[in-house]
Design goal:
- It holds the Pfam family Aminotran_5.
- The chain folds into 2 domains: about 270 residues, Type I PLP-dependent aspartate aminotransferase-like (Major domain) (Aspartate Aminotransferase, domain 2, 3-Layer(aba) Sandwich); about 130 residues, Aspartate Aminotransferase, domain 1 (Alpha-Beta Complex).
- It is about 35% helix and about 10% strand.
- The chain is built from 16 helices and 12 strands.
- It has a 7-stranded mixed β-sheet with strand order 1-7-6-5-4-2-3, sandwiched between helices. Strands 10-12-11 form a 3-stranded antiparallel β-sheet, with helices on one face.
- The radius of gyration is 26 Å and the shape is globular.
Length: about 500
């Protein structure tokens, strides 16, 4: 790599007259565009030779950090593993060259994929049936809440428009409730990070007839299992509400516990989190929604069903009803190739090995937590599940913040964990290794985190000024947010 060229913009590598291509001789003559459609001056495009272009974009691509580069401990993001076999299955021409409007007789295999995944997810969660139509987790939340609203309205109970949500919830929960036309009632957390049962009882007592549902993530955003879940579900059910399970943190539950068995009525899960599809970067998502027995009629259509040895699609009824079961919530049958990847992952593990997902994710998270708690402040002690939260460095006298630690990790070749979330702690640092990482990988991360804590004590300025080895060093985050530079202006020739 030519370090002198590395990190420059393609415009800065431009030289007049250089070309990266050679076009054949024009055999079609000149065809002028109308003057109203023409530029007043030539476009300011870079002029570079082919090798410069290839090297420039290859170097840029190597700045992208992903699962193929190394370990990244982002919390509340879950899946960081995408087996190559999944990509092979999604690349099969029989899957990626079909059209959703083909005759059903020609896509029976694709419909079986959808049907088999519906049944697999039902078995894993205890739900009676699933729709695969929603295209993301938040889209699944909205769909689930629409199902709940339809359920109440069908029973003539349209006044139920309040949704209880813990203060530690993912931000999409209250947002989805608001989009669905519901009012959010926030329930507090106790000092140990769990739902305050007494506060919940008071909320329900204050609203005895208009509770539509309670949304919960279990384990919660702090990585803690809600110990009072049987009492919570009973309290909400007795008040006439339904329980909604945010499946963003399902990994540690696989093979250990099922949401339906905990008393949840409706749930969504993220195929792009729990079942191995690449997560992040704006890639395709999928947020299937499952319902307990008795709520299946409220699932949105279209929906794949099996009739004898053939697969068919239930279409929405053509009525004036605005209930979710009579309306599309996503195009056709969801993000199909994401569904293919998820089923591939489940079948690869099989029922014998998928039960190991939960215990291994819990083991890895607790191993990191216990290994680092002497250097990093652990605000809530005890067993965590798939993720946990530190409140910055234990030694606050260094002046080194969570942001500084995150920036310094870049120098060591690690992606930073989730920082300043959840909002319960001022210097929050959420770490989640998932079930897929080896002990050697975890030990390497632990060693680096200890090194950074040592640097903070002995030479804090090196941490505060990080990163030092990246193409772009420490930036002014506030200035970048308030005054982003989104275009390149060619400097006048000297």
């Amino acid at each position: 790599m030519n370090n002198k060229l590395y990190g420059k913009l393609i415009f800065e590598l431009s030289h007049p007259g250089r070309r990266a291509y050679s076009l054949p001789k024009d055999e079609f003559g000149s065809h002028e565009l109308p003057s109203a459609m023409r530029r007043a001056e030539d476009a300011a495009l870079p002029e570079c030779d082919e090798m410069t272009v290839v090297r420039h974009y290859t170097n840029l691509s190597e700045n992208n950090f992903g699962v193929d580069n190394g370990f990244y401990p982002l919390g509340s993001c879950t899946m960081k593993y995408n087996p190559p076999i999944n990509e092979e299955m999604a690349a099969l021409s029989a899957f990626n060259n079909i059209h959703p409007l083909q005759p059903l007789s020609t896509v029976q295999g694709a419909l079986q994929v959808e049907y088999d995944l519906q049944r697999a997810l039902s078995a894993l969660t205890g739900m009676a049936d699933f729709t695969l139509n929603p295209c993301a987790g938040a889209h699944g939340e909205l769909t689930g809440l629409m199902i709940i609203r339809s359920y109440h309205e069908t029973r003539g109970d349209s006044r139920r428009n309040k949704v209880i949500i813990p203060d530690s919830a993912h931000g999409t929960n209250p947002a989805s409730a608001a989009v669905c036309g519901c009012e959010v009632l926030e329930v507090k957390s106790t000092a140990d990070g769990l739902v305050d049962f007494d506060d919940l009882k008071q909320i329900i007592a204050d609203h005895p007839d208009d509770i539509a549902a309670m949304m919960m993530t279990n384990p919660n955003t702090l990585g803690l299992f809600e110990r009072d879940i049987p009492a919570i579900t009973k309290l909400v059910h007795d008040a006439g509400g339904l329980m909604y399970y945010d499946g963003a943190n399902l990994n540690p539950m696989l093979g250990v516990a099922r949401p339906a068995d905990m008393g949840f009525d409706v749930m969504h899960l993220n195929l792009h989190k729990t079942f191995s599809t690449p997560h992040g970067g704006g890639g395709p998502g999928s947020g299937p929604v499952g319902v307990r027995e008795g709520l299946e009629p409220f699932l949105p259509k279209p929906h794949v069903v099996k009739n004898g040895d053939k697969f068919d699609i239930e279409q929405p009824e053509r009525t004036d009803s605005y209930t979710v079961e009579n309306n599309h919530v996503g195009p056709f049958l969801g993000n199909f190739l994401v569904i293919v990847r998820a089923l591939s992952y489940i079948l690869s593990l099989g029922k014998e090995n998928i039960k190991m997902v939960g215990p291994l994710s819990v083991l890895n998270a607790n191993y990191i937590k216990e290994s680092l708690k002497d250097d990093y402040e652990l605000p809530i002690h005890g067993l965590c599940k798939h993720e946990f939260v530190f409140n910055g460095l234990k030694d606050k006298s260094t002046g080194v913040t969570t942001m500084d630690v995150a920036k310094r990790l870049l120098d060591y070749g690690y992606h930073a964990p989730t920082i300043y979330f959840p909002l319960l702690f001022h210097e929050a640092m959420m770490i989640e290794p998932t079930e897929n990482e080896s002990k050697e990988t975890l030990d390497g991360f632990i060693e680096v985190m200890h090194n950074i804590a040592k640097e903070a004590r002995e030479n804090p300025e090196i941490v505060k000024g990080a990163p030092h080895t990246t193409p772009i060093s420490r930036v002014d985050d506030v200035e970048a947010a308030k005054h982003p530079v989104l275009t390149f202006r060619q400097l006048a020739a000297e």
